[in-house]
Design goal:
This protein is of the alpha/beta class. The chain has 15 helices and eleven strands. Helix 4 crosses helix 12, helix 7 crosses helix 10 and helix 10 runs parallel beside helix 11. The protein binds ligand V47 and iron/sulfur cluster.
Length: 379
């Protein structure tokens, strides 16, 4: 049943004495945007059940119990990277490239061919920033994939990869983006956002594109009619203020362009990187974060939990805390999280398994394409 507007503060009056929290519940009930200060109050004082029911109320209103997934596969061209993000367990420096991988054009096309008789709708291309893989190389890759399989939606390259590619090619962001679009690129994934605030960015990933640069690359893509996703790497050294600042900057850009498809909070995993001394966030903190993101990011229709990173059980729990999307099914061939300590060592879920996970929490599984058109509702 679709949730209707209701007196949420009335529901909470018996258990919540905090007037600010009650005022936020009223705003949510009345479809009003909450402020940055409200979001901070939620992070500091909103207990799990409270933020969870507000988030679930919003998700029900927007999606009427539906949870989306898509059938996709990943190509990770290389893990060789010119950057040195301290949280990254995946990359290898160019001088140590013999410890990593560098796929040739043919090897990547072989991955595409492997899915020839499978009903996948999207390929997600993302990797390290290799000094020798340039814009021309990736334009050729995109064109060849599109020629081979025109129905496949090409989603690729984080703003970090794009910033480097365009600078090396001596092109403006707009020129570079047009070249990729003309070669077949349709959407950008949300990676590389981390935490925009310089107080954090300068500690965890000082040498790559800054927050303003990340946002302007996504804005340029939106201006060309492309869509993109947005992420936030949370649960390390950032404060609640940094999270709110990050989400607020995304919310502002979304007000301006409307080009974001979804928001994906990414939980920091601490295995095999230079931030291993930092404890991972608890599941309660994860769920609170998802719920507060759903409440604050009122212009993002979709909130995604990326199960290969969270683990399937926590991802399943997020469905009761505002999440309406579990990303992909068939063969999520990404290595980025297994190398950082996710419990999902070789992430792969069949459509049936994913539908069962969704149905087990009383939601309706819906297969979508990259732009969230519904392809099949599973009764
Ligand atoms: O930007 C790297 C993150 C991102 C770690 O758009 C880590 O649909 C946790 O953005 N612990 C890349 N996270 C992956 C990404 C993504 C994934 C799935 C779907 C989409 C989408 C985008 O992975 C990086 C960084 O934030 N990451 N290392 C780590 N140790
Ligand atoms: Fe390179 Fe991306 Fe790893 Fe940073 S997170 S070191 S940019 S692969």
């Amino acid at each position: 049943m679709v949730a209707k507007s209701m007196d949420l503060s009335g529901v909470y009056k018996m258990t919540v004495a905090d007037k600010q929290l009650l005022a936020i519940a009223d705003k949510v009930a009345n479809n009003e945007r909450i402020t940055e200060e409200d979001a901070l109050v939620l992070f500091e004082r909103g207990e799990l059940g409270f933020v969870g029911s507000l988030a679930n109320f919003i998700a029900q209103k927007l999606h009427n119990n539906k949870v989306y997934f898509n059938r996709n596969f990943h190509i990770e061209p290389t893990n060789v990277c010119v950057f040195t993000c301290n949280f990254c367990s995946y990359s290898r420096q160019y001088k140590h490239r013999d410890e990593g991988w560098e796929l040739s054009m043919e090897q990547m096309l072989d991955i595409v061919r492997k899915y020839d008789d499978q009903p996948v709708t999207e390929v997600h291309i993302v990797g390290g920033v290799h000094p020798k893989m340039n814009l021309e190389f990736f334009c050729e890759l995109l064109t060849r994939i599109k020629t081979h399989r025109p129905d496949l939606h090409l989603k690729g390259f984080t703003a970090v990869e794009l910033d480097y590619m365009f600078r090396k090619a001596k092109l403006t962001t707009e020129e570079g983006m047009e070249r990729l679009r003309d070669a077949g690129l349709q959407s950008l994934p949300g990676g590389g956002a981390e935490i925009f605030h310089p107080e954090v960015r300068e500690v965890i990933c000082a040498d790559k594109v800054d927050g303003t640069g990340w946002l302007s690359i996504h804005e340029a893509a939106h201006n060309l009619g492309m869509h993109s996703n947005a992420t936030m790497l949370y649960g390390h050294i950032e404060t609640y203020q940094h999270r709110v600042d990050h989400m607020s900057r995304l919310r502002q850009l979304q007000d301006k362009t409307g080009g974001f498809n979804c928001f994906i909070p990414l939980k920091f995993r601490n295995k095999g990187n230079d931030m291993s001394h930092i404890a991972e966030s608890t599941i309660v903190e994860d769920l609170r974060l998802y719920a507060i993101a759903r409440i604050f990011m009122d212009n993002f229709r979709n909130l995604k939990a990326y199960w290969p990173m969270l683990g399937r059980q926590t991802a399943q729990l997020t469905l009761s805390f505002g999440v309406n999307d579990l990303d992909g099914t068939i063969d999520d061939t990404t290595k980025i999280y297994s190398m950082a300590g996710s419990e999902e060592q070789s992430p792969s879920l069949s459509t049936e398994e994913l539908c069962d996970m969704i149905a087990a929490v009383g939601k309706t599984p819906v297969e979508r394409d990259t732009l969230y058109s519904e392809l099949k509702v599973y009764a």
